[in-house]
Amino acid sequence: MTRQAVVAVLGAVVVAAGVAFTLLRRDTGAAQGEPDPTDSRWVCAAPGCGKDFALTFAQLGAFYADHPGENPPCPACGKSETARATACPSCGRTVPKPGREHSSRSPPKCPHCGKPL
Ligand SMILES: [Zn+2]
Ligand SMILES: [Zn+2]
Hints:
This protein has two domains: 1-34; 38-117, no CATH class. Helices cover 33% and strands 15% of the residues. The chain is built from two helices and four strands; from the N terminus they run H-E-E-H-E-E. The protein is extended and about 65 Å long. Bound molecules: zinc ion (ZN) (2 copies).
């Protein structure tokens, strides 16, 4: 086997392992009924709503293609007063992305379980 062939085979193995790992992770999450950790999370900031929702990156990409620079609308109230959110590492629920208002003296906490984000 030539050196180039060895490099090509090694590269293919690494890619295959990465794909398998990603698929396994997705399967595990789906089996538990958990939101896919690779989804983008959003929260609605409209008064009286506060709904959180998730979009796959494929859905998000399709939305941005049609509405560049806009936020995806809330599925509950239809307003686009939505903000990017993240998943709490402790309880897995959707929480607003920590912003600049948090200093090192008051680290951001999950509003659901109170654990640090
Ligand atoms: Zn809403
Ligand atoms: Zn939490």
